């Protein structure tokens, strides 16, 4: 039976995607790995061995960068999974204006990082910002969201959740919608309530969606820096630098070999975290 | 039914694509080789988004009538991102016919002798001022012409506040500090801190270079060679100290929330008389005019003073250079276009349509009568030779993290000595990447 | 019983109102901020405040954005639309096929999954990629950027598809096999239609990624005639001054097509469900 099955799942199906992926992505990427061991001006290069890697590990804000990257990714994954699932459950329940609400939740996904950065810079302004005004209104003190070195990365992570939760929500909605209706019917006949429906049906059966959200949000969180760049530029000082923004600064200075070495390091760092997570959550999927 | 709706979606999308296509797609490609005489030629001109193209557009319009050569502007991002775009396109042989790029040391990093057309035989060469020509000369060739007026770094100040408090333009750093204290005591913001635009944190150091080169004339050369550093050259370290003294670590002259203040808000504070000083480049004047047309005449400028060793002078950012790509298929047409641009008529059209942000570096081009008051204030310094090009025009070494380091120093989180040392390490990496030994 | 139901419906209504308010507060306020500032004068917008504009410059701002640079924005819409539509068509076909086999096969295919993940982990290598495109004669062409965008979005779409193929019972394949289906018919006639909800999701999410891509367009699709929508934002930002009113007007204008796309396909996600539920 197995042999038959595999005939149905022909490897030829992989060819079109495989060729495009290899030619336009994997091949140039492998080629760039070579340049991580060179001094490179884009037009000229000179082989220098592992010097770029050593220089990269001497970057002034590297330790902060590692710490912030982990914090940022952890916060983003947690926030997007929990909020995304809750919003998706809410938006798939029997409410009237869900189309409008879905559009509102999704709107942030559509606007560019520049606009998001500018908007939250204003909302988080220490004295005039609406967030602090709101806090003051209920008797809480103002917070310098982006200016306080200890808080800046947190504020950016919050904004990232705000911007990215729409993607998680849409994936969860697709997952919840894929749950066959008879399960819900069966539970209703047994007299289950909303919470039980969530606990025993939605949660376990939207696992594929959840796994996807986790892996996508995790890798994105470890690599993402456009919001960091738009909101704080890695500052104040270096306090909100993440690995990707450190690499970007080197790239922007024209240190092409060094930046490529940074990307190789970032790749191994992300792979060391994401591959085991991927393996773990997919094993669970089979258990189910 | 379902299949049908899917088909209708894609056809609707394709249809809308077609409709938009009719209104927008008129791009004819240029393949005329020589561009002589009557054959129309289209040139592509790569400019940064920060470039004010009003003057160039006016010249382009006149040139199209005169020469039958049209120009389309290809906008790229400014700053480091834009430098990478240029380098990438040069490395892959896909650069536009003409482009605008920094003059001086930064131009040297993109290999001008190989990538750009030598203009030293062109008739307009003698009109370019010598100190500008130096920044675009490499080997025996001259590779660029100024794309606009000069751009000057210093202290923009609000004249109303100065009059009200009876203040005078400071001749020494101490006098500047006294002025600021007086402003602060009067309840205004002494100096705008707009660190949200992080590149602005550098001005108190970069605009101090006139003083550095006065006190240590060989600094640029020794710095490039690695023999002098910011941290161990007193005149250069002084620039970091000045940046520190302005912030909460020193006299606390910045506005509250300076970390979160945007550049636009900072300009508004200066223009509306909320704040008295703003260390900046004069190329912000057009933006101030756009947002505060009535107040721009009320803004003056003076150079960042020294500690009394010499008369103050301006640090000048030389205009970016217009360059012709060696790989262009329309080199002759591009040369003609530049010749027209540099002609008396071309420069007159340019100056009429451009908001001059400093004196010009082409002979015979005067700043127009309707120029900004601040620009008129600069002219005497230029006439007396009290100017020096900024460090980045005379040394290729510029570390990537200077804005961040100075936001720490200016914010009072880091001492000037630590900042200067950190910057020296940062610059060391730049030197390594440039292949300069012994740094 | 009916009292209980009434109580429940009251509670649902309360939850609905609360949820709507929270959503409006968290997502609506920033959206309102962008919208309201796109209608102010540049002086007013530079202050970046939430307040009502002193004078409405809706027509002036949006008009200026649309006509700027001889209608560059319309050209950009055209280019972005071509790239997005064809990338998505290609992406949907090749990724669903690949993901189907990756999800169903055991053994080697499992390891290939890691290779797919790699696509999410490294940014494209700019200069080598340009060399490849030049070598194939595809640089600065629509096919070139479409293939490239497909390669760069492949991992994301493939991972999504893979997860949802796993929810389709394998018995279906076996039944089809017994009916004498070949692999192509099995996939395109039986599996692919069942993937409609996730296909809709991928169309929405990947379209946005392609349409909003700015970095890759900048490097891999250069030239003034090749403007794409995100690059038009650069007309209004700069080191020396940002025209926030025009920037935001441009932001609003370029996200309208995607918003329409979302609203349209959002409904598809739902209708796919009913079809799937019957079969499941």
Structural overview:
The complex is a heterotrimer of chains A (288), B (439) and C (280). In chain A, a hairpin with a 4-residue loop joins β1 (38-40) and β2 (45-47). Chain A starts with a helix and ends with a helix. Chain A has 288 residues and is an all-alpha fold. Chain A has helices spanning 2-8, 15-35, 51-57, 62-92, 98-110, 113-123, 130-137, 152-177, 181-189, 194-205, 207-223, 226-231, 243-252, 256-287; strands at 38-40, 45-47. Chain A is 73% helix and 2% strand. The termini of chain B are far apart. Chain B is globular, with a radius of gyration of 24 Å. With 439 residues, chain B is an alpha/beta fold. Chain C has helices at 2-37, 42-46, 58-104, 108-121, 126-135, 142-165, 171-178, 183-194, 196-211, 215-220, 229-232, 244-279. Chain C has a single domain (73-279), classed as Orthogonal Bundle (MetI-like fold), CATH 1.10.3720.10. The longest helix of chain C is centred in the N-terminal third of the chain and has 47 residues, at 58-104. Chains in contact: A-B, A-C, B-C. The interface between B and C is large, with 49 and 43 residues. Chain B: It comes from Salibacterium halotolerans. Chain B: Keywords: Cell membrane, Lipoprotein, Membrane, Palmitate, Signal. Chain B: Residues 416-439 are annotated as: Disordered.
Mean pLDDT of chain A: 85
Q: What is the H level of CATH, i.e. the homologous superfamily of the domain at 67-242 in chain A?
A: MetI-like
Just give the CATH class of chain C.
Mainly Alpha
| CATH structural architecture of the domain at 67-242 in chain A | Orthogonal Bundle
| Structure class of chain C | mainly alpha
Q: Would you identify the CATH architecture of chain C?
A: Orthogonal Bundle
CATH class designation of the domain at 67-242 in chain A:
Mainly Alpha
Major beta sheet summary of chain C: none
Strand content of chain A: under 5%
Percent of residues in helices of chain A comes to over 70%
Q: Which regions of chain C have little confidence, pLDDT < 50, spanning 5+ residues?
A: 271-280
Strand content of chain C: under 5%
How large is the count of helical segments of chain A? 14
The CATH topology annotation of chain C reads as: MetI-like fold
């Amino acid at each position: 039976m197995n042999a038959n099955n595999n005939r149905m799942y022909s490897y030829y199906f992989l060819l079109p995607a495989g060729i495009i992926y290899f030619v336009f992505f994997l091949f140039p990427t492998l080629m760039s790995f070579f340049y991580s061991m060179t001094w490179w001006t884009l037009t000229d290069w000179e082989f220098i061995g592992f010097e770029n890697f050593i220089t990269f590990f001497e970057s002034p804000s590297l330790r902060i960068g590692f710490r912030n990257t982990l914090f940022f990714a952890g916060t983003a994954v947690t926030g997007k999974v929990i909020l995304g699932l809750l919003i998706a459950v809410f938006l798939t329940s029997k409410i009237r204006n869900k189309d409008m609400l879905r559009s509102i939740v999704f709107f942030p996904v559509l606007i560019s990082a520049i606009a998001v950065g500018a908007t939250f810079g204003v909302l988080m302004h220490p004295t005039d910002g609406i967030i602090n005004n709101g806090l003051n209104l209920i008797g809480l003190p103002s917070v310098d969201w982006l200016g306080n070195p200890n808080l800046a990365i947190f504020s950016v992570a919050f904004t990232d959740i705000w911007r990215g939760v729409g993607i998680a929500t849409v994936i969860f909605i697709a997952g919840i919608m894929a749950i066959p209706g008879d399960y819900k019917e069966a539970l209703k006949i047994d007299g289950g309530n909303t919470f039980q429906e969530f606990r025993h049906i939605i949660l376990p059966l939207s696992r594929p969606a959840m796994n996807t959200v986790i892996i996508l949000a995790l890798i994105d969180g470890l690599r993402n820096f456009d919001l960091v760049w738009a909101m704080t530029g890695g500052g104040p000082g270096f306090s909100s630098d993440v690995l990707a923004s450190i690499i970007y600064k080197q790239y922007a200075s024209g240190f092409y070999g060094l930046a490529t070495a940074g990307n190789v390091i970032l790749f191994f760092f992300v792979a060391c975290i994401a591959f085991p997570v991927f393996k773990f959550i997919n094993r669970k999927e089979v258990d189910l | 039914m379902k299949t049908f709706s899917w088909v209708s979606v894609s056809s609707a999308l394709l249809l809308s694509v077609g409709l938009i296509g009719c209104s927008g797609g008129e791009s004819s490609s240029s393949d005329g080789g020589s561009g002589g005489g009557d054959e129309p030629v289209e040139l592509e001109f790569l400019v940064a988004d920060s470039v004010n193209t009003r003057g160039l557009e006016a010249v382009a319009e006149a040139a199209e009538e005169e020469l039958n050569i049209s120009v389309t502007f290809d906008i790229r991002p400014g700053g480091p991102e834009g430098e990478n775009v240029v380098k990438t396109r040069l490395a892959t042989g896909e650069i536009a016919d003409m482009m605008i790029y920094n003059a001086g040391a930064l131009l040297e990093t993109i290999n001008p002798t190989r990538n750009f057309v030598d203009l030293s035989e062109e008739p307009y060469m003698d009109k370019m001022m010598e100190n500008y020509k130096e920044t675009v000369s490499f080997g025996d060739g001259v590779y660029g012409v100024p794309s606009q007026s000069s751009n000057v770094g210093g202290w923009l100040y609000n004249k109303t506040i100065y009059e009200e408090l009876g203040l005078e333009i400071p001749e020494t750093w101490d006098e500047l500090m006294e002025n600021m204290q007086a402003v602060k005591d009067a309840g205004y913001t002494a100096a705008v801190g707009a660190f949200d635009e992080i590149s602005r944190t550098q001005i108190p150091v970069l605009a101090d270079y006139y003083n550095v080169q006065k006190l240590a004339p060989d600094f640029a050369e020794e710095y490039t060679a690695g023999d002098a550093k910011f941290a161990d050259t007193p005149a250069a370290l002084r620039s970091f100290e000045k940046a520190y003294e302005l912030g909460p670590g020193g006299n606390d002259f910045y506005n509250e929330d300076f970390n979160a203040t945007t550049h636009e808000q900072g300009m508004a504070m200066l223009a509306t008389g909320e704040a008295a000083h703003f260390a900046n480049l004069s190329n912000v004047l057009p933006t101030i005019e756009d947002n505060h047309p009535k107040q721009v005449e009320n803004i003056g400028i003076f150079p960042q003073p020294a500690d009394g060793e010499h008369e103050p002078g301006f640090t000048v950012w030389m205009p970016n250079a217009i360059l012709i790509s060696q790989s262009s298929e329309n080199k002759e047409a591009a040369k003609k276009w530049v010749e027209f641009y540099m002609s008396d008529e071309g420069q007159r059209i340019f100056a009429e349509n451009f908001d001059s942000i400093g004196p010009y570096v082409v002979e015979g081009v005067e700043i127009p009568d309707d120029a900004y008051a601040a620009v008129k204030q600069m002219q005497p310094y230029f006439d007396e030779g009290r100017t020096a090009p900024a460090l980045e025009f005379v040394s290729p070494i510029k570390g990537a993290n200077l804005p961040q380091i100075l936001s720490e120093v200016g914010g009072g989180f880091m001492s000037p000595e630590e900042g200067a040392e950190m910057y020296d390490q940062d610059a060391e990496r730049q030197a390594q990447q440039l292949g300069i030994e012994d740094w | 019983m009916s009292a209980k139901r009434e109580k429940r419906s009251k509670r649902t209504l309360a939850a609905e109102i609360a949820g709507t308010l929270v959503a409006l507060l968290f997502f609506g306020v920033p959206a309102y901020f962008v919208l309201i500032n796109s209608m102010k004068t540049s002086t007013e917008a530079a202050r970046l405040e939430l307040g009502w504009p002193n004078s409405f410059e809706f027509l002036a701002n949006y008009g200026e954005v649309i006509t700027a640079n001889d209608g560059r924005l319309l050209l950009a819409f055209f280019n972005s639309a071509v790239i997005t539509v064809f990338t998505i068509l290609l992406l949907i076909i090749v990724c669903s096929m690949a993901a189907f086999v990756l999800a169903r096969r055991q053994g080697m295919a499992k390891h290939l999954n890691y290779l797919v993940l790699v696509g999410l982990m490294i940014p494209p290598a700019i200069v080598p990629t340009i060399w490849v495109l030049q070598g194939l004669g595809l640089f600065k062409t629509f096919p070139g950027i479409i293939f490239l965008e497909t390669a760069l979005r492949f991992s994301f779409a493939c991972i999504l598809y893979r997860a949802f193929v796993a929810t389709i019972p394998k018995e279906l394949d076996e039944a089809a096999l017994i009916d004498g289906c070949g692999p192509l018919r099995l996939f395109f006639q039986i599996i692919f239609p069942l993937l409609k909800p996730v296909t809709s999701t991928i169309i929405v999410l990947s379209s946005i990624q392609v349409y909003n891509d700015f970095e890759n367009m900048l490097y891999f699709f250069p030239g003034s005639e090749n403007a794409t929508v995100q690059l038009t934002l650069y007309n209004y930002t700069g080191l020396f001054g940002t025209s926030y009113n025009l920037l935001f007007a441009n932001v609003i204008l370029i996200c309208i097509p995607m918003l329409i796309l979302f609203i349209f396909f959002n409904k598809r996600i739902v209708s796919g469900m009913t079809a799937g539920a019957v079969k499941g």
